[in-house]
Design goal:
The complex is a heterodimer of chains A (about 150) and B (about 160). Chain A has about 150 residues and is an alpha+beta fold. Chain A contains three helices and five strands, in the order βαααββββ. Classes of the chains: A alpha+beta (about 150), B alpha+beta (about 160).
Chain lengths: ~150, ~160
């Protein structure tokens, strides 16, 4: 696990440590089971086609969960995530599987963030956050507020 | 292409609360969720590590809660109701906003309440689109509101 980050360590413009993710059809099934989101849009080809999105798409909620993961990894065990919001601006498509465990080559997603504001009164830090695919498209964008421990305490 | 018109029968659903749901946050459910997301923090998966942490138990990652389906809300039924009142059949998740007010961990018993907070008509690249915001609020067994979530959905 990464070293604990403190409020004094970050400045406006500081980057949140990038978190790399992939999505596979298998992971979408796993996420459906774990979250209870069994919308066929995420696993049935014809259903997705009829809705006009081409083929099954990555759950917006999984990309949102990646952004939560981005922030909680960065803030460490002593940080607290206070707020998070995101919007889904475009579709992302999972890699298909070539064996039980391994997917074919395909998209990789990069969860990124940047500090936009620091609040000295409560040691909270506001960030803009997004998920970027291999083409550089930001299909999921949002904002997060975390409270970081202070060295002054 | 045109802006979606919000009918009176849709407007009547704004502010209506669904029956509350009560559920227990299960350790195994947290572990499976963390695994599905790829969150490697032992606080969400390692029972022994978590027992020695400041929380003393497996804690849910933020966002574990707040998807109305997994917490017992019958979201599809709610959408059926909206569709009967005139909402278009196409449905996409537009986004989400969370206020994480207190930690949620294994063993917590939560009461969740959900309501249609707003319905607006817009024009998007999918055509005339209805934008619905659902607000859910979760209260724990000690009476503390732990989470407020606003989910936005697009019907087109």
């Amino acid at each position: 696990m990464a070293k604990q980050i403190f409020y004094e360590d970050v400045q406006v413009g500081s980057e949140v440590t990038t978190l790399e993710k992939i999505a596979t059809t298998r992971m979408l099934v796993q996420y459906a089971g774990a979250s209870g989101d069994f919308n066929p849009l995420h696993y049935e080809e014809d259903f997705a086609k009829n809705l006009g999105v081409g083929r099954p798409i990555v759950h917006g909620l999984l990309k949102r969960a990646w952004l939560v993961n981005l922030m909680t990894d960065w803030m460490g065990q002593e940080g607290t995530l206070k707020r998070l919001s995101c919007r889904y601006r475009g579709m992302d498509y999972p890699r298909k599987m070539k064996s039980f465990e391994d997917p074919v080559d395909g998209d990789t997603w990069y969860c990124k963030g940047k500090v936009t504001k620091k609040n000295d009164a409560d040691h909270t830090v506001e960030c803009e956050i997004w998920v970027e695919n291999s083409k550089g498209e930001k299909n999921t964008t949002g904002a997060a507020t975390v409270m970081l421990p202070s060295k002054a305490k | 292409m045109a802006v979606f018109t919000v009918t009176d029968s849709l407007k009547q659903l704004i502010g209506q609360k669904e029956p509350p749901v009560v559920f227990k946050v299960e350790e195994g459910a947290i572990q499976r969720y963390a695994q599905a997301v790829g969150d490697k923090n032992p606080q969400h998966s390692d029972v022994e590590w978590a027992a020695n942490s400041k929380w003393g138990r497996v804690m849910a990652p933020p966002g574990f809660m707040g998807w109305p389906i997994s917490t017992g809300f019958n979201l599809f039924k709610l959408f059926e109701k909206l569709m009967k009142a005139g909402a278009p059949m196409g449905l996409l998740d537009g986004g989400v906003e969370y206020d994480f007010l207190a930690p949620i961990g294994a063993g917590d018993i939560l009461v969740g309440e959900i309501m249609v907070a707003s319905i607006e008509g817009r024009e998007t690249k999918m055509g005339p689109t209805m934008v619905t915001t659902l607000q859910s609020t979760y209260t724990n067994q000690r009476g503390a509101v732990v989470l407020v979530v606003r989910n936005t959905f697009l019907n087109f």
